[in-house]
Amino acid sequence: MSFLIKALLLGAAVLLQACAHAPAPPPEAGVPMLRLSPASLGCVLSAQQRMAVAVAGRAAQSAEVLLEVDAQAVNLALVALGQTVARLVWDGQTLSEARAPWAPAALSGERVLSELQLAGWPLDVVQAALPTGWTLTASERGRELRQGGALKLRVDYGPNRVWTLDNPQQGYRLTVQTLSHSTQGTPSSSAASGPACS
Question: Span 3-178: which CATH code?
Answer without folding.
Answer: 2.50.20
